[in-house]
Amino acid sequence: MKIVILDAFTANPGDLSWEGLKALGEVEIHERTAPEEVISRCAGAEIVLTNKALVPAEAIEALPDLKYIGVVATGVNVVDLDAAKEAGVVVTNVPGYSTDSVAQLSFALILELASRVGDHSRAVADGVWEDCADFSFTTSPIVELSGKQLGIIGFGAIGQATAKVAAALGMKVVVYNRTREKVVDFPYAPLDEVIATSDVVSLHCPLTPETDQLMNADRLASMKEGAWLINTSRGPLVDEAALADSLNSGHLGGAGLDVLCKEPMAKGNPLRTAKNCLITPHIAWATREARVRLIDQVVANISAWQADKPLNVVNA
After folding, report:
1. Mean pLDDT over residues 236-253, rounded?
2. Amino acid 94: pLDDT
3. pLDDT of residue 103
4. Has 263 been annotated as catalytic?
5. Is 122 a catalytic residue?
6. In sequence order, which residues have a C-beta less than 8 Å from that of residue 213 and are 6 or more positions away?
7. Backbone angles phi and psi of 223, in degrees to 5
8. Among the options 144, 263, 272, 289, which is catalytic?
9. What does the alpha-carbon distance between residue 172 and residue 247 come to, in Å, rounded to a whole number?
10. What are the pLDDT digits (tens) for 20-74?
C-alpha cells in the first residue's frame, strides 16, 4: 500500500520517527509540496497525508487509486470533503492532540503581556541594570493577573484547559460558547458581554461563516480601555487592520497572536509594527509532545481504517 506524505516538515522536521507509518505500507515523504505538484506526487497512492497542502476536488478526481486522506492536523479545510465523499475516499483528522500545548501558549502570551519578561531580560542583557541607580527597575508597567477577568470565547477542550490555568492564577473566568449547555464549572455570559467586560479576551472557537471577522472594529471598540486580545485559534477571527488601529490608538493595551489571516505573514501586515502586539508564527500546536501524539494518532487512524474500523472520519 503506497502512502504519500505531502508536507512532512512542520509535523516532523527530523526530530521524530515515521517508523510506525512505514510498518503500514510503502511511504514516500515530501517535506513540502506545491499545489501544482499534488497530483503527480500522489499518483498511484492509496493513502495521502497532508497537513496544509491542499487536496482539492480536481486532485481527488485525478487520483483513481486514492482511498484515504489523512489530515495531519485537526482542521480539515485543506481537503474538499464533498468531492472525497463522492469519490468514496475516507478523510480523517486528529482532534485533541495539542490541547495542553495551545492552552500553554495562550498563557505564555498573557504572561508576557503581564510581566514583560522578554523586555526586562533584553534590558538586562543590554546593560541597563548595571547602570541602574536602584536595585530594581521596570521597562514598562507590569500587571498582576489575579482578580482580572478572562473572557473565553469558545469552550471546547482548549478553552476549558485555558480556563483551568486562569482559575489557578486567581483570575475570574467568564465564558461564551455557541452551545450554552456545554459551559460547566465556569459562568456563562452572552458574547458581547464577555467582550465588553473582560480584561483579557481569549479566542478558542473554530472558523465558521459566523465567526469570520468575529472581532471586528465595533467589537474591538467595545472592549475595555487597556484590555488585551489573545488569539491562538484561527487568524480570520480577527479584523487585523482594525486591531492594529485599536492598538496604535491606545484603546487596547495589548494583543497576543499565534495565528494570522494569511500564513506565512503577508508583507505589509499592519500588526507587525503595531504597538504592544506579540506575534508568534503559529507554534502553539508544535511542542514535541503534541507532535508525537499527532503522528501516533495518524498511524492509529490508518491502522483502524485498514481494519475496517475507521476512527476520526470527518466526511462520513
Report:
1. 98
2. 98
3. 98
4. yes
5. no
6. 236, 237, 238, 239
7. -70, 155
8. 263
9. 24
10. 999 999 999 999 999 999 999 999 999 999 999 999 999 999 999 999 999 999 9
What is the Cα–Cα distance from 295 to 77, expressed in whole angstroms?
Answer: 19
- Residue 30 and residue 20: Cα distance in Å, rounded? 17
Cα distance between residue 294 and residue 72, in whole Å: 7
Query: What's the predicted TM-score (pTM) here?
Result: 0.95
Q: Which one from 234, 240, 291, 293 is the annotated catalytic residue?
A: 234
41, 204, 282, 291: the catalytic one is 282
SS3 171: coil
> What is the pLDDT of the chain when averaged over all its residues?
97
Domain 2-97+288-306 has CATH 3.40.50.720: yes
DSSP H or E stretch at residue 125 = helix 117-125
The grid coordinates of residue 155 equal 469552550
Name residue, grid cell 487596547. 252
**Cell numbers that stand for 247 in this block:** 492598538
The CB density around residue 19, as the number of other CB atoms within 10 Å, is 10
Q: Residue 232: what pLDDT?
A: 98
Q: Is domain 99-279 given the CATH code 3.40.50.720 in the classification?
A: yes
Outline which parts of the chain fall under CATH 3.40.50.720.
2-97+288-306, 99-279
pLDDT in tens, 67-95: 999 999 999 999 999 999 999 999 999 99
CA-to-CA dists, residue 240 to 1, 75, 98, 214, 216, angstroms? 45, 21, 25, 11, 8
Per DSSP bridges, beta strands 47-50 and 90-92 are unpaired
Helices 288-306 and 99-115 cross at an angle (nearest 10°) of: 160
pLDDT tens per residue across span 270-303: 999 999 999 999 999 999 999 999 999 999 999 9
> Which grid coordinates belong to 23?
510498518
How much is the pLDDT for 234?
96
